[in-house]
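Subject: for your reference before the review

Hello V.,

The reviewers asked for a structural picture of the protein, and I figured it would be easier to keep everything in one thread rather than splitting it across files. Below is the amino acid sequence we used in the manuscript, unchanged from the supplementary table.
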Amino acid sequence: MPRPSALAALAISIDLMPVATAVIEPDTGRFVYANRHFTEEWLTKSARDLSTLIHKDDRPGITALLHAGLERLLPAENTMIRVPLQDGAVRWAQLHIQSFQPETAPSTHLLVVQLIDVTADKRRLDDVIAREVRWNSALVSSVSGVWDHHYAINRKYYSAIWRQIRGMEIDDPLPSSKEEWLSLLHPDDVEPTLHAMARQEDGDPAYQVFEYRERHKDGHWVWIECRGACIERAPDGRALRVVGTDTDITERKLAQHKTLQVSRRLEMALAISGVGVFEADLISGAVDWDDRMHEIYGVPQDEAIRVGETWENFLHPDDKLVVLQNVAGNTQHNQCFSDQYRIVLRDGRERVVRSCSMTFTDTDGHLKLVGANWDITEDVALQRELERAKSLAEARNADLESARSRIEHNALHDYLTTLPNRRYLDEKLAQLAETCTQSGEALGVLHLDLDRFKQINDTLGHNAGDAVLRHAAKVLRDIVRSDDFVARIGGDEFVLLSRFNGNPRKLAQLADRIIKQLRQPVICEGRDCRFGASIGIAWAAGQQIDAKQVLLNADIALYRAKNNGRNRHEFFSDATHREILDNKRLSDDILRALERGQFFPVYQLQFDARTLDICGVETLARWRHPEHGILSPDRFIPTAEEIDAMAIIDGLILEQSLVDFDHWQSENLLIPKLSVNVSYRRLRDPGLINKLRRLPIKPGQLSFELLESTFLDNCEDGVTQTLESLKKLGIALEVDDFGTGHASIVSLMRLSPQVLKIDRQLVKHVPDSSEQAKLVGAIVEIGKALGIRVVAEGVETMQHAHILRDLGCDELQGYALARPMPAAEIPAFIRKAAWRNDH
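And here is what came back from the structure prediction:
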């Protein structure tokens, strides 16, 4: 304890203090002395020391503070404590505690404490904190971002949610200027937003809330609802501080847009459908009709509608009772119901109405009836008409079914022979391939083509041709088994599908029977028609049959059968496959030869039959093959025609022959004209005439040789026009290989060629066959009668030359006079004139 003198001096100082002050011992917390303020405001009878004075939850902290005071001089400390009252309430006090050593007793250690009542301040602070928590919670819950524009101190605040609305992170920089912020606004919203902000700062209540669009950080537009108000103004009325919130209302806007869309669609649907909507209050009697309801019933818009009167008066007398009973019965059950009835308008017209209605209890407790009406008068009339049409349709159903069967049959069968057609064949081929794969059987395909059918069709007419096709179809039906399948796939081609087990020789035997039977003559219009058949055979077996490939193989075998003499059958084989590969290789070689310029012309001179003077030269194409040497046209023309290369070869040969011809003329060689072979495809080229016009061709200098079998009777209109254009260009026409085709004299007269070239096959046997000589003489007579010069090809000996001269041929061409030779050899040959020495 301190000495009394030291304590007295301290007491005097404490008593003078205007706040509650006391002295306590550090080790026990016992009160040593307290002034009047402390005693009156804080001490109670039970408070012996500081720890008994304060709230039990605050004692540990104060005890620790006192213990610290025992060890050292305690600097001034402030802490908040609670002092419990007898009624259970609590007073809050600011505790100030500090160590004290009296100068008169240096060894004495005391603590001076002061208590200041802060209960009112604490309650105000708690209230502020609570309100702030509630405000922050409300803002977070509403997802509203706070903004505060304090113009007086030039400070702007934006909350985290304000940034979140715009997709910004906390550390993302804000727009550096008003202009930069305006650049983020939707172009349509810039002016309205500036106006709204100005009005908001002016305090206009109409602009306390406005909306605008701002670009989100990821690029899409965000709809923002801005709420704000000026809370501080300068004396001149200028806004010093404006605060508010921003709320993301994008979803609400989208919902409004969708609602508007649905509303528009509903309005359009009602307008298009002609549906009228009504609502009737069954308690108050109020009725609401839309415009369409007024139109349906012909009631003016300003006429009042009454429950139990207006609508009921329009009901047809014969329908009224049933309709009203239906309404009354369903009104009691609050369920949807429909009806159809007639109404009589005020002008006497009768209409038919369909209705759909239901009852419900509204929020005002009234029972209401809502529904829709639509005028179905035309629909009912149409329905009646449809019912009549249905009756008629049912009456004709048998005929239609029969017609459908015929159409289906015609779609799958050939109209002429009644055999299945190509479409049916494709379906059946796939089915049989799958069946044979599952059963382990083999599938055989016979592809048949009639021999000499074209000749019959062309000479005896299409009626005879049709009779031949029907006969062939009957033969095939009679020969094949019941489970075999025969189809005509076009023209004179037939395909037979057959399943078999064991040796494919059965297919060969079947083919032989067909060929033998088709050889028998057929009487058509009183005349015997003889023809035959070529058949290609292919077959396949195994776990997976490629039906299309088998059919293709049969077609390839047919091609070989026709090339090998016709009226026979051939199996598809590896050799056939190799032949195809050879043709493919030859096609590639031809295209490569065109690129490398391997085609060139040779020339065979033509001579006057009486004087043996040179009267022309025929150009013949040759191929300088890198492996097989010089090839004649018979080695490459068929393949070249298949790949459309013959016209190109003709063009190259023509251009080179014109160059050679000009060269001979410059050497004064008397060769009057140049003959060049031309393919049918080249004559079909629409640009041929223009190409020829660009070449240095003099009238009468050039002749085109045409094959008689190709060009006389079967010319297309375009080819005929081309031939006429050739004549106008001064290019003569010659018919090559005459006598081996089947052209008519009429077609020969129509063509009006300058030259007929008798085929070498007719000339060959003239020396030892008087009949051949007579035939050649007849051709010569035909030529002279038509004013056409006649050239004999294949003049192998001088005997041929003499006989043909005597028969009246104008020109001769053949090995006896000159062999084909390159252009470079022509000058020397002509100057030597060896053909005259052999004469």
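For the response letter, the relevant points are probably these. The CA atoms of residues 502 and 723 lie 58 Å apart. Residues 119-142 form the longest helix (24 residues).

Happy to draft the paragraph if you're swamped.

O.
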